[in-house]
Amino acid sequence: MTRYAKQILDLINQSDRHMTAEQIFLELKKSEPKVVQATVYNNLNTLWENGMIRKLSVTGSPDRYDKVYRHDHLICKKCGTLSDIAFHDITGDLEKQLGEGIISYDLNIFYLCPKCRGKSE
Amino acid sequence: MTRYAKQILDLINQSDRHMTAEQIFLELKKSEPKVVQATVYNNLNTLWENGMIRKLSVTGSPDRYDKVYRHDHLICKKCGTLSDIAFHDITGDLEKQLGEGIISYDLNIFYLCPKCRGKSE
DNA sequence: TATTATAATTAGAATAATTCTAAAATCAAG
DNA sequence: CTTGATTTTAGAATTATTCTAATTATAATA
């Protein structure tokens, strides 16, 4: 685990935001002014390949990175705002239906956030 | 509903693939040789905004478009191959926990497809 | 039908996110 | 120290998607 990898992992684990690579890069730069974007992308990819972080693909915005503890996401269909929520774990149910071998799952729930529900339009 | 919009919608509804904008563009070009990529993107976006198609964001590949009937996706963590599966509808459960106002949800289940399970590596 | 307004399409440039390449720097082991 | 492997760097390249402005098609109206 390299110097940068460790710090990137910490940033993700200590933040409650769902940061993009760019945002992580800017945070990391505060303590490591010499670091470069490609390094952040490289490290994010290897951390992700090793199951140490989650990667969230949300339509219309760059990938976001998240902690691995089990939780789901509530996403505003209009403005894209993303928040955490913990629906109960359905891995057991899934395995009953699909058999063993499930690595993980992503559950994204779409709604209109209070703000967007206001401006009905 | 314009000429192109209708054909794009039909392509998606009649195909079992999960096509990217590019693939849809190539298909459409067979019957409409003059059509242009931007038109496909425009139409895909308006169809999606009107809830007539689904858009799938999968890490590492361009967005894919899908029919709207309720079903979930099984995705190979290694090669990204995506297939359909119908786990039971959990909207009711979700609403019980989160209250009304849920528009939809995406459930993506990650596993290793038979091919990738072979080459354990 | 001619006229106007509205919306859709086009071509191509622009943007934004991410990956790639090759060189330089760092690290780890013998 | 030397060697080899890995990581980082700088910057170019790629890819998907959006934007812009001009053009064309469609629909609505006089």
For the structure shown, list the relevant keywords.
homodimer, 121 residues, alpha+beta, Arc Repressor Mutant, subunit A, Dna Ligase, domain 1, 2 domains, three-stranded antiparallel β-sheet, three-stranded mixed β-sheet, 5 helices, 6 strands, 40% helix, DNA-binding
Give a verbal description of the structure.
The structure is a homodimer of 121-residue chains. By secondary structure, chain A is α+β, with helices and mostly antiparallel strands. The first copy, chain A, folds into two domains: 3-66, Arc Repressor Mutant, subunit A (Orthogonal Bundle); 72-113, Ferric-uptake regulator, C-terminal dimerisarion domain (Dna Ligase, domain 1, 2-Layer Sandwich), CATH 3.30.1490. Helix content of chain A is 40%, strand content 22%. Chain A has helices at residues 3-14, 21-31, 37-49, 91-98, 114-118; strands at 19-20, 54-56, 64-66, 72-76, 82-85, 102-111. In chain A, strands 1-3-2 form a three-stranded antiparallel β-sheet. Chain A starts with a helix and ends with a helix. At the A-B interface, helix 4 and strand 6 of A face strand 2, helix 4 and strand 6 of B. The structure holds a DNA duplex (30 and 30 nucleotides).
Number of strands of chain A: 6
Gap from first CA to last CA of chain A: 50 Å
Q: What strand order characterises the main sheet of chain A?
A: 1-3-2
CATH topology of the largest domain in chain A: Arc Repressor Mutant, subunit A
Oligomeric state of the chains in view: homodimer
Count of helical regions of chain A: 5
Largest sheet composition of chain A: 3 strands, antiparallel
Low-confidence runs of chain A (pLDDT<50, min 5 residues)? none
Strand proportion of chain A: 15-25%
The arrangement of helices and strands of chain A along the chain is HEHHEEEEHEH
Shape of chain A: flat
The residue-averaged pLDDT of chain A reads 92
